[in-house]
Design a protein that fits this description.
There is one protein chain. With 259 residues, the protein is of the alpha+beta class. The chain has one domain. The strands form two sheets. Strands 6-7-2-3-1-10 form a six-stranded mixed sheet. The protein has a four-stranded antiparallel sheet with strand order 5-4-8-9.
Length: 259
């Protein structure tokens, strides 16, 4: 990843400090059976964390509400695959991001605003508006998010052909496929989550990569890492939003969802 001196040291990459969020759950859904490739079929698959009662985020929010507790802000990355398969990864802030404004240690960041404020408090930034995290989550538009959302894949186990197919370098997901963003605008969940939907069928390259991956995924193990690209000195160093390791993903583990 790009370190603090990336722009002045010849582009030397460094390791990230601890990710801002940790993976809490992964849903494996099967949406096949609808109108294949149709707009309605695609639409029912998007914003799945909020719209589907089967999603982990919905179930976890209801569980916490029954206990009188708030749901932490949640980052969701959703691979919307062309065969109806969906891989939905859920991340929530680590519990040691420092004190909140009232001095309460490890308070829950239930909104994007609270998360950005606590992140700045921990890092000691003097200008909250300059935060790349704040712009990505709150102030920037979807075009900005699409241009900055970065994904890296590291293959630990798998056939040699899969190693040749998967990108060896981090990629900006918006350059590989259509990317949609959902934050619950206008509803009770506004800015309490961010779902990134990568629509793999929208691009021939992304569709080919998924086809190759799905052919060997039952025999592979890979780690996926997500972060926001920093392009100026004030936006560095980059920091992981979250990472997840997937092992032996096959169609047999998918949960079939009704239309």
């Amino acid at each position: 990843m790009r370190g603090r001196t990336y722009l002045t040291d010849g582009g030397v990459k460094v390791g990230s400090e601890r990710a801002l969020c940790e993976c809490k759950h992964v849903d494996f859904f099967d949406f096949s059976g609808g109108e294949e490739g149709g707009a309605a079929e695609l639409e029912r698959r998007l914003d799945v964390a909020r719209r589907r009662g089967e999603s982990w985020m919905t179930r976890e929010r209801e569980r916490l509400a029954a206990m009188g507790r708030s749901m932490p802000w949640t980052f969701v990355f959703h691979f919307v695959n062309p065969d109806g398969a969906s891989i939905v990864c859920y991340f929530q802030p680590n519990d040691d991001e420092g004190d909140d404004d009232d001095g309460e240690a490890n308070a829950v960041s239930s909104t994007a605003e609270e998360l950005c404020r606590r992140h700045h408090h921990q890092k000691g930034f003097s200008n909250d508006e300059s935060s790349i995290l704040r712009k990505f989550l709150l102030d920037g538009d979807d075009a900005y998010r699409s241009a900055r959302m970065k994904l890296a894949v590291k293959l630990f186990k798998g056939p040699a052909v899969l190693r040749r197919v998967l990108p060896s370098r981090p990629v900006l997901v918006g350059q590989r496929a259509t990317t949609r963003f959902y934050r619950g605008e206008g509803g009770p969940l506004e800015n309490k989550y961010l779902e990134v939907d990568l629509i793999c069928a929208s691009n021939a390259t992304a569709k080919y990569l998924y086809s190759a991956f799905s052919s060997y995924s039952a025999r592979s193990e890979q780690e996926l890492a997500f972060w926001i690209e920093g392009t100026s000195e004030s936006e560095l160093p980059e920091r992981l939003l979250g990472a997840v390791r997937l092992r032996r993903v096959s169609k047999e583990i998918l949960t079939k969802l009704p239309p």
